[in-house]
Amino acid sequence: MRLYCPLTSKHKDGILRVILCGRISTAHQDIESNAAQHEEAERYLEREYAGPREIKRISDQGSGWLVDRPGINAAQEWIAAGWCDLVLVNELREVYRNPRFLWAFVQDCVDNGTRFISIADAIDTAEENWEPLMHMACLRHGMAVPEARQRVKRKATHSFSGGGMVMKVQYGYRKLTAEESLSGVFGPVGLRIAKLEAATSTIQTMKDMVVAGKSYEIVAEWLTEEGVAPGPYATNGKWTGRLVRDLLRAPILSGQRQFRRFFCDMKYGTGKHKLKANPKPPESIEYSGLAHLTPEQHQELLAVMDARKEVSRIGHPSGRASTLYNVLRSRSLWPGQHLTCAICSGLFYCFGEVMKCQNARGKGPNDCWNRVQVREDEVHEKVLPVLLRFLLKNEAVRKVIAEVAWKEHQRSMNRNNQSLSGLVSRITELERQATH
Which residue range forms the structural domain that includes residue 124? Predict the structure, then answer.
């Protein structure tokens, strides 16, 4: 691509200030790829501009659909501040993949007097016809991702049917090398996972403890005391109640490999992914040689776990049924964010009607032995009266409490009046429509 409009600086010192964008998609790629992108862009810049220049290089590591990235955020700040004369990229995808944000980025460059050039796409905002070229480039780069996504899905389905797609190896199993899987010694040819026979008795005991009424946390403590190491994907290297629960629910314990139980749903506004349960039945293949439990034993266990979950759901409402739904922990009602553990000084978190140490939770680090559970209503009944008696002894404090209470009352009344006014207006509008 040759430039028809020469590069110039908008600054009095005549220095051309340039941003070079570089991006790799994942943390597993070589970060040196960004340097290679920068070098190629700099060679182009040397051919087109011989004057003094100042260059800032961006090296992002993340998906092109991800909106919030450190490098691109810094570039947008430099552009908005008027520092930049030119944003130079080899291809549009080094900025974003999503056409929505590509257009916003390039248009922001134009609005702030910054020239944008994409070498491979022949886009130069200093030329009159840059917008048609931008449309075509966005189409090409935008279509590449859905096409790649379909290829990945087809390959994953084919790999799973042949025994592959071993993404997470839980306790009691190990992943086989390609050579081991093709040997047929450890199971069907092509199967990339094998059962560890020594773990069967431990998993049987875990099952018996849960069926007997033991909590998942107690099972986790027993495993820790016995020196049983968790699976390789246990990030903190410890057994937790959640880890025990997830293992015992895994279909592979009774010999059933499942694929696509969940899928990642991307939010276009942020480029981030959210894990969701697959509404369709997952793909499943039976391998009896992988079973630590018989199907009947596993069904018995799952029935007990489901019943326990239902009891917990009734006693500890979650989701929209919870009083803390959509409320930040930092904004939770007293005594939330106030009680602390006497053992580890961790905060007490609310779980339905009770509170317990954040470090003794099944989903937490589970490194505190304090299992005390405090009822919120008892804290209100016993602590609040004492606290109020103490505060009300001071006249200045009484005035502050009265003022705060009155302001809160006024806000509440205003909200009620606004709601009432809105209802009256809606009723009047409906009556008017009915008469016509």
Answer: 16-145
Asked whether residue 264 falls in the same domain as residue 192, the answer is yes
423, two tokens: 């209802």
Overall average pLDDT of the 330-338 stretch: 67
CA distance 294 to 299: 9
pLDDT for res 327: 65
Measure the CA–CA gap between 127 and 132, rounded to whole angstroms.
11
**CB environment 210-242: b (16+ within 10 A), e (fewer):** beeeebbbebbbbbeeeeeebbeeeeeeebbbb
Could you give the CA distance from residue 128 to residue 134 in angstroms, rounded to a whole number? 12
Give the SS3 label for residue 86. Answer: strand
Same domain, 338 and 289: no
> Is residue 1 domain-resident?
no
| Signed CA dihedral, 313, 318, 319, 320: sign only | positive
Same domain as 92, residue 55: yes
In this structure, the answer to whether residues 186 and 251 fall within a common structural domain is yes
The SS3 assignment for 164 reads: coil
For all residues of the chain together, what is the average pLDDT?
84
**How many Å apart are CA 130 and CA 3, to the nearest integer?**
12
Decide which of 13 and 336 is more confident: 13
Q: Apex CA 25: angle with CA 24 and CA 31, to 5°?
A: 35
Contact in structure between 67 and 30 (CB atoms under 8 Å): no
Q: Is the dihedral of CA 253, 255, 259, 262 positive or negative?
A: negative
pTM score above 0.85? no
Q: What are phi and psi of 98, to 5 degrees?
A: -75, 120
